[in-house]
Amino acid sequence: MKAPASATTPGSVAEPLEPRWLTDEEQRVWRSFMEGVTLLDDHLDRQLQRDAGMPHIYYGLLVKLAEAPRRRLRMTELAMLAKITRSRLSHAIARLEKNGWVRREDCPDDKRGQFAVLTDEGYEVLRQTAPGHVEAVRQAVFDRLTPEQQKSLGEIMRIIAEGLQPAEAGADLPWLR
Questions:
Q1: Which end of the chain is more exposed for a tag (fewer CB within 10 A), N or C?
Q2: What is the torsional sign of CA 163, 167, 171, 172?
């Protein structure tokens, strides 16, 4: 491996850094992680489509609204909590509105702002769907892991999530796009 560009002598032309290739073990871990995430997302999507006619992302939005005071959140805050772009959120909320599960309300102190509000019908769909979804999550994840593995998984995912959400201004985060 070549020396990093920062280690070149003053006045010399910096060479591109050599890629930090994954070791065989890192490659195995990375591929297992990606396969697990992909299969888990597909599993939960199929369960929710079958039981409630909605994708997993929509279920997550309903949950976030149900947990919010007065079952309502500003659209920008909902996008941040869901870790999705504002465009994707707007499309999802439009579909949820069409089903009668969510409605939009204008923000009284910000002419451009809007709230997403979980309707009683949306809350009832969530209430009926939650038991099957929790069971699907339990069977796919928690029943397969020891308590120690569960704790480790939570810690690992928190570290990864925190590292991908820098606090500095100008960070390229989905909800800011």
A1: N
A2: positive
Q: Are 96 and 61 in contact (CB under 8 A)?
A: yes
The one-digit pLDDT tens for each residue of the chain (177 residues) are 444 444 455 566 777 789 999 999 999 999 999 999 999 999 999 999 999 999 999 999 999 999 999 999 999 999 999 999 999 999 999 999 999 999 999 988 887 889 999 999 999 999 999 999 999 999 999 999 999 999 999 999 999 999 998 877 677 888 887
Question: Cα dihedral angle (145, 149, 150, 154), rounded to 10 degrees?
Answer: -140
Q: How far is CA 151 from the centre of its chain?
A: 19
End-to-end Cα separation, the chain, in angstroms: 37
Separation between Cα atoms, residue 148 and residue 174, nearest integer Å:
32
